Amino acid sequence: MELHETSSHLFFRVAGPGAEEVSVLYDKESMKGIRWKNGNDDIQMQILGSDGEWFYAVMPEEGVDNAGSGPFYGCVQKHLLKNDPEASAHSYIVKIRFGRFTL
User: Fold this and answer.
1) Above 80 in pLDDT, residue 88?
2) If residue 16 lies in a helix (H) or strand (E), which one and from where to where?
3) pLDDT value of position 63
4) Number of H helices, E strands in the chain
5) Which residues 6+ apart lie within 8 Å of 62 measured at CB?
6) Residue among 29, 35, 30 nearest 11 (CA)
7) Higher-pLDDT residue of 20, 34
8) How far apart are CA 48 and CA 15, in angstroms?
9) Separation CA 83–CA 4 (nearest Å)
10) Hey, how many other C-beta atoms are within 10 angstroms of the C-beta on 76?
11) Which string of b and e fits 2-38 if b means at least 16 CB within 10 Å?
12) Looking at residues 25-43, what average pLDDT do you find?
């Protein structure tokens, strides 16, 4: 469905079984990757762009309903909350760089 690339990683989304959205992050040097899918009711956070070194995404505010947090959203939110306890009450444009995968 989309592809974004930095000098070290690829990020892409595909349609999996039953048209489920699957996100993949691939390390070009180690040739290893991770994949995840969000539940239908999870707060979605997508990578929307990239340049040579960084990926860019919009992290939506948490909202008032009882939606779960998708895996990517939950990970970024955890890091933001360390520095700003009110982070889930705001939307952010986030700049993200990933390290090497050494699984």
Assistant:
1) no
2) none
3) 56
4) 1, 7
5) 43, 69, 77, 88, 89
6) 35
7) 34
8) 17
9) 28
10) 19
11) eebebebbebbbeeeeeeebebebbbeeeeebeeeeb
12) 87
Two tokens, residue 1: 């469905």
Which residue would you say has higher pLDDT here, 4 or 39?
4
Whole-angstrom distance, CA of residue 55 vs CA of residue 72: 13
- Phi and psi (nearest 5°) for 57? -145, 160
CA distances, 84 to each of 15, 66, 81 (Å)? 34, 21, 5
Distances from the Cα of 55 to the Cα of 19, 39, 96, angstroms: 25, 23, 5
* Residue 99, phi then psi, degrees to nearest 5: -85, 180
Instruction: Identify the band that residue 34 occupies on the pLDDT scale cut at 50, 70 and 90.
Output: very high
Determine the Cα–Cα distance for residues 12 and 25; give it in Å rounded to an integer.
7
Q: What angle do CA 71, 10, 102 make, to 5 degrees?
A: 70
